[in-house]
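In full, the data:

***
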Amino acid sequence: LIGVPLFLGLLEKRMALGTKHKMSIDVVIVNWNAGLQITEAVVSIAKHHHNVVSSVTIVDNASIDDSLSRVKAIENLPFTLQIIYNRENYGFGAACNQGAYGGRADYLLFLNPDTRLFNNSLSLPLDFLEDERNRSVGICGIQLIDERGGVNRSCAKSPTARMFYSKILGLDRLFPGFFQSHFMEEWDHRENREVDHVIGAFFFLRRRLFVQLNGFDERFFVYLEDLDFSVRAKQNGWTSYYLANAQAYHKGGGTSDQIKARRLFYSLQSRILYGYKHFRLSEAMLLMVGTLCIEPFIRLAFNLLRGSPKSVGETINGYLMLYGALPKIMAVAFKR
């Protein structure tokens, strides 16, 4: 849909010349009816920019609220603010790629609109990646704090087919000690460590890695595009690292709370696509069959046990959308 720009040659030329320059960050935020949240995010960047933020690019995926009017009213920003308006919703990964085009900073930060930066949110991960000892680290995440001051479980393992199967059957909820989610929920996220993946709410990475991987795979409309990127980075010799001593606020759920049935559809669609991209064909087919034929009844059972008729309706609508989109999903899954 939207190709990654051909600026690799320019980047290599600058590196070959050995030009000394101050390290800088381009921030990309994808907006879809984020309301006041996105204004708070931009204000927090301005407050804690530490003179390292070159630009903030907001890519608006056809919002219908007035969220961007508030952003445009902010005065005296210490960085360049660019707003790109899309006439339709191209999806999260495609919008991230679009937002990364114009910048030339050494680092990219993909930031959710429901986040707010703190004083050390940018300086610590930048210093960490600038340290020569960490030259193999391509992606850095930080500790994300929720509304109650708790620490979000924001890191994940590279998922296996077995992990997805246990989720389909609800085994990860019934027997969490035996069937773990790919999210690292068993770890308290209170120390620094190398991980397989840090979630895309605060996704800090080297621009040259982004260029090397041709950005996010736009076949993932939303969900798992960041995980797919981390897996591909690892396959190319890069590592991901989590810094517990740097923090940012993250509400979680974001604007997708407005459309829970569609959110379910997108998450299931991305799971099927992820399976066909990263698993053996037999595993991917079993994953798809389980998602289509078994999981809806498991989900409905859990909804009924919780006494949530609204969730029942959202689940049914989400799966109806999935069944209707299946021919298109399969065509995308086998597209190379």
In short: The longest strand covers residues 239-250.
